[in-house]
Amino acid sequence: MKFCCQQLGKDATNDFEDVGHSDSAREMMDKYYIGEIDANTVPTKRKYVPPQQSYNQDKTPEFVIKILQFLVPLLILGLAFAVRTYTKKE
User: Fold this and answer.
1) CB within 8 A of 56, min separation 6: which ones?
2) What percent of the chain has pLDDT over 70?
3) Please, what is the average pLDDT of the chain?
4) From the CB of residue 41, how many other CB atoms can be counted at a distance below 10 Å?
5) Residue 3, phi then psi, degrees to nearest 5
6) How far is 10 from 1, CA to CA, in rounded Å?
7) Gyration radius of the chain over CA positions
8) Is the distance from CB of 7 to CB of 16 less than 8 angstroms?
9) Which residues, 6+ apart, have CB-to-CB distance to 69 below 8 Å?
10) 6: enclosing H helix or E strand
11) Are the beta carbons of 26 and 13 closer than 8 angstroms?
12) pLDDT tens for residues 38-78?
């Protein structure tokens, strides 16, 4: 059973064999070989626990936030245009 850091502790034997490593890679594997791992000590798959939804501390409704995310850039753009227009020399 081969383990690899890219396999995150899983059995990488099939992945190693499928790639078609060269003889020098196999010699290198022998050089860095540490030992066999007991398959019973490998942790089982954990159940996915989705992250908790973010908490809106100020209780602002979500649609108000979305509207502000749209309107604030437009207001800044409008202000920049107004400043450019009224400060333009004739």
Assistant:
1) 62
2) 77
3) 77
4) 6
5) -120, 150
6) 9
7) 30
8) no
9) none
10) none
11) no
12) 778 777 777 888 877 766 566 667 788 888 999 999 999 99
